Amino acid sequence: MTHLHLEQLRKHFGASVALDGLELEVQPGEFLVVVGPSGCGKSTLLRLIAGLESPTSGEIYFDGCPISALPPQRRDVGMVFQNYALYPHMTVAENIAFPLRVRKVSTAEITQRVRQVAALLGLEGLLERFPRELSGGQQQRVAVGRALVRSPRVFLFDEPLSNLDARLRMEMRAELAALQRRVGITTLYVTHDHTEAMTMGDRIAVLDHGRLLQVGRPAELYSDPAELFVASFLGTLPINTIAGVLDVADGTLLFRALDTALTLQLEPDILRITPPSLPLDATLAIRPEHVLPSSDAQVRLTVERVEYLGHECIVRGRVGERVLLTMRLPPTAELPPGTSIGVRFDRTGMFLFDANGNRL
After folding, report:
1. Residue 332 — pLDDT band, cuts 50, 70, 90?
2. pLDDT per position as a tens digit, 281-317
3. 36 with 19: CB under 8 angstroms?
4. Which of 10, 74, 178, 338 is most enclosed, with most CB atoms within 10 A?
5. 17: helix, coil or strand?
6. pTM of the model
C-alpha cells in the first residue's frame, strides 16, 4: 500500500490557475474522494499524479520518493476514465490482459491474473464477449479490471459512474467501495456528485477554483464545515442560507436577516472565533432537517410546495417575502400550499459564515 503526498502542487495553463498550492496526504490503503464543481481542478489533479500532465511547481511523492520527473509508464498507476476507453475489437479477456501484454508478461501468468481479476469482479462468464455485448455496468467492471490486473500502487478514478443510470450508479458505488477495501490499493476517486462522495470515501477533499478547502470524514464535513461552499456543496438537499447582520444588543448575540423582519437570538458558543467587531455582515446556514415545526415559534413559514418522496416530505416555503426555506418532515405531513406554520431552528445544525464564506 502506497502513501501519497502532494506538496504545494501548482498547475497553470497560461494565465489560468487549475491547482493553487495543493497540500494533501493520502494514507496507505485509503479511499479518498475528491469532490467539487466542474472546472475546480479535480481531473487535472489525477492527470498530474498519473503523469499525463507536468506540474508548474510542487512535487508528488509515493512513499516519500518524488515521482514528478518519472514518465507515466514508470509510476505504476491504474486509471479508470469516465468513458471506460475499452478496445472494441478485443474481448473482455483481451481488454483486461492488454496492460500485461504491453509489459511482455508471460502467457501463463497473464491467464492466471486475468482469471483472478475476472473472479473478483464477477466477469468469469463474460471473458469471450466484446464490449458492444456488455451493459454499462459490465463495461465499467472491465475498465476497473484492466487497471486492477497490474496491481498498481495507486488507483485513480475520474468520474467512472457518470454515464450510468441512477439505479446502476447506486449499485456500482457499493461494488467499487467494497472492491477497494478488499484489494487495499490507495485510491483517489474524483466526482462532482455529493452522494458518491458521502457514501464511498473514507475521507473527502473539497476543491474549488483549484484550492483545497477542507479534508475530513464525510460526517465531519457535513456537520462541521469550515466554509460556506463546503456546507452548500455537501448534502442531498441544499443547505438553507439567510443573509443578514450579526450584532449584539444588551449583551445578547443577535442575527438580523436582511430580507425580512426575522431576528434570532443566538447562544455565544455558536461562534468558533471572536469577530473583530460587530455589527458584521454574515450568512446563517441551517440544514433542512434542522428546521423544525413548532407551535409557539416566532418564525412563521408559508408553505409553497410539498414534495412527497415516500420516506419523507420535502417542504419548501417562505419566511416573509424573500427568505426561502426547505424542511424535511415525516411522510404523514399534510401541508397544502398557503398553509402558515411556526418553525424553529435547531441550534445544533446552525452555522455562521462571514462575508467571505469563512466559518464564524
Report:
1. confident
2. 999 999 999 999 988 777 889 999 999 999 999 999 9
3. no
4. 10
5. strand
6. 0.88
Longest dimension (CA), the chain: 82
The label of the residue with cell 500502487 reads 153
Amino acid at residue number 220:
E
Question: Among residues 200, 233, 266, which one ends one of the domains?
Answer: 233
The CA–CA distances, whole Å, from 252 to 182, 346, 360 equal 54, 18, 17
Do residues 347 and 307 make contact, with C-beta atoms less than 8 angstroms apart? no
Under a CB-based contact definition with an 8 Å cutoff, are residues 280 and 354 in contact?
yes
Residue 291 is classified by DSSP as E
Tell me, what CATH number does 266's domain have? 2.40.50.140
From residue 211, alpha-carbon distances to 10, 34, 151, 216 in Å are 10, 12, 31, 15
In this structure, are 153 and 255 located in the same domain?
no
Last residue of a domain, one of 211, 233, 255: 233
Q: At what angle do helices 107-121 and 166-183 cross, to 10 degrees?
A: 130
Mark whether 319 and 293 lie in a shared domain. yes
**pLDDT-derived band of residue 156, with 50, 70 and 90 as boundaries?**
very high
Going from the C-alpha of 219 to that of each of 197, 228, 249, the distances in angstroms are: 11, 16, 35
Looking at the fold, whether 77 and 103 belong to one and the same domain comes out as yes
Cell triple for 179: 472492491
- Regarding whether 157 and 47 lie in a shared domain, the answer is yes
Q: Is 119 left (phi over 0), alpha (psi -120 to 50) or beta?
A: alpha
CATH number at residue 227: 3.40.50.300
**Number of Cβ within a 10 Å radius of residue 189:** 28
Which range marks the domain in which residue 245 is found? 240-354
Q: Are 138 and 123 within 8 A, CB to CB?
A: yes
SS3 per residue for 176-188 = HHHHHHHHCCEEE
Residues 103 and 145 in one domain: yes
Interval 162-206: pLDDT, tens: 877 888 788 888 888 888 888 899 999 999 888 899 999 999 999
Instruction: Determine contact, residues 266/254, Cβ cutoff 8 Å.
Output: yes
Phi then psi for 115, rounded to 5 degrees? -65, -40
Give percent helix, percent strand, percent coil of the chain, each to the nearest 5: 30, 35, 35
pLDDT at 347: 85
358's CB contacts (< 8 A; 6+ apart) are 226, 227, 228
